[in-house]
Design goal:
Mean pLDDT of chain A: 86
Distance between the termini of chain A: 50 Å
Oligomer: heterodimer
Largest interface: A-B, 27 and 26 residues
Strand content of chain A: 35-45%
Strand content of chain B: 35-45%
Number of domains of chain A: 1
Order of helices and strands of chain A: HEEEEEEEEHEEHE
Helix content of chain A: 10-25%
Number of helices of chain B: 3
Structural class of chain B: mainly beta
Number of domains of chain B: 1
Largest sheet of chain B: 8 strands, antiparallel, barrel
Order of helices and strands of chain B: HEEEEEEEEHEEHE
């Protein structure tokens, strides 16, 4: 059963992601929930991340390089918003669940493939479930994030977020690392 | 009316067309020797950075190009970066999602279509001469060399544009527009 008395502070990565997605709420965990993931993006790639769109252009561009290391992608270089590791799990041919971490907090995102190598990234948003369900599923909850402790809890939020539109655009374009 | 005498002229395809052709692999290109789009507006703001991704294989772009353009009276002018010998760019909206792009330098102008996927994010497709049959190509191209059709009028361009709108090619080129740092 979730401990509703605990009110964990949002970790840096969740705060960064939260800032990135502005008014959205985040679902996070203190331990990894995704297991058995594979290098869906190859062994080495450059992540070109675009966000904070206004007037038809991205105000923020972050470029980082990740390398697969046995069980997860490891940050190699560049600005990754404090993400040190991440994994991604296919939910359907074009939708992926992402678990990104700074080793303190694990934050959850959805990536929807728009074309080869192009993904729209959205948060797993706790507000896609009603307040009562949030209270039941969040082991800890602050105003901006929900901490889950089981895969079942995570999946409930993921299912609620799938197919939802989100009023903030984040795009990831995957490329070969530039020299 | 076309000047069919011009059909016998055999102008060599310019660098932009050749490089775009290479970029778009097997697609064919439509180009002109002078700009055909007029009255265009700074639809992408006063200045922007173009982040162009192409040559996707195994789910990632092998080629990434960035270039900064600034509006200068009637067109976007390349300020910095490298974009296949392109110096000037204009975009003309065709509908809510599609725009016609004219990319050029002082010698040639090539034509592309951009399809908006989301704010600031576009799929780039060629205006492909092969979307018309051989007879229509012959009728509308002033010269035709290899995979490149050179046109001379806006009417000819529009014929190819209408034929290419809504078509897809098995090749991905993506552009993301970002603010200039």
């Amino acid at each position: 059963m979730p401990d509703h008395r605990s009110r964990a502070l949002a970790g840096p990565i969740a705060l960064v992601l939260l800032a990135a997605v502005i008014l959205a709420a985040c679902v996070q965990s203190k331990t990894p929930m995704l297991t058995g993931t594979k290098p869906e993006l190859g062994n080495l790639f450059q992540l070109n991340f675009f966000e904070n769109f206004s007037d038809g252009m991205a105000a923020t561009v972050k470029i980082s390089v990740f390398r697969w290391d046995a069980t997860r992608y490891v940050h190699v270089s560049g600005d990754s918003s404090e993400v040190k590791y991440f994994v991604m799990e296919p939910l359907s041919p074009n939708t992926f669940l992402i678990e990104a971490t700074d080793e303190k907090v694990y934050a959850y995102l959805l990536a929807v493939r728009m074309a080869e190598g192009i993904y729209r990234v959205m948060p797993v948003d706790e507000t896609n479930l009603d307040n009562a369900t949030q209270a039941r599923l969040c082991a800890a909850q602050s105003s901006d994030n929900c901490t889950v402790s089981t895969r079942q809890q995570l999946d409930a939020f993921v299912r609620a977020s799938l197919g939802k539109t989100f009023n903030y655009a984040m795009f990831a374009v995957i490329s070969s690392p530039s020299n | 009316m076309l000047d069919h005498q011009l059909l016998t002229a055999k102008a060599a395809p310019g660098r932009i067309a050749v490089m775009l052709l290479a970029a778009l692999l097997l697609a064919a290109c439509v180009q002109s020797d002078k700009p055909l789009l007029t009255g265009t507006k700074p639809v992408l703001g006063d200045q922007f950075q173009l982040n162009l991704f192409d040559d996707f294989t195994d789910g990632k772009a092998d080629t990434v190009r960035t270039a900064v353009f600034r509006w200068n009276t009637s067109r976007y002018v390349l300020v910095s970066g490298d974009l296949l010998d392109v110096k000037y760019l204009v975009a003309q909206p065709l509908d809510d999602s599609n725009s016609l792009l004219q990319l050029g330098n002082d010698k040639e102008y090539a034509y592309l279509l951009s399809r908006k996927l989301a704010e600031g994010t576009y799929r780039i497709l060629p205006v492909d001469e092969k979307d018309l049959d051989a007879a229509a190509q012959k009728q509308n191209c002033v010269t035709q060399q290899g995979e490149i059709c050179t046109i001379a009028t806006r009417q000819q361009l529009d014929t190819f544009v209408h034929a290419s709108l809504g078509k897809t090619i098995p090749y991905t080129m993506m552009a993301v527009i970002s603010a200039v740092k």
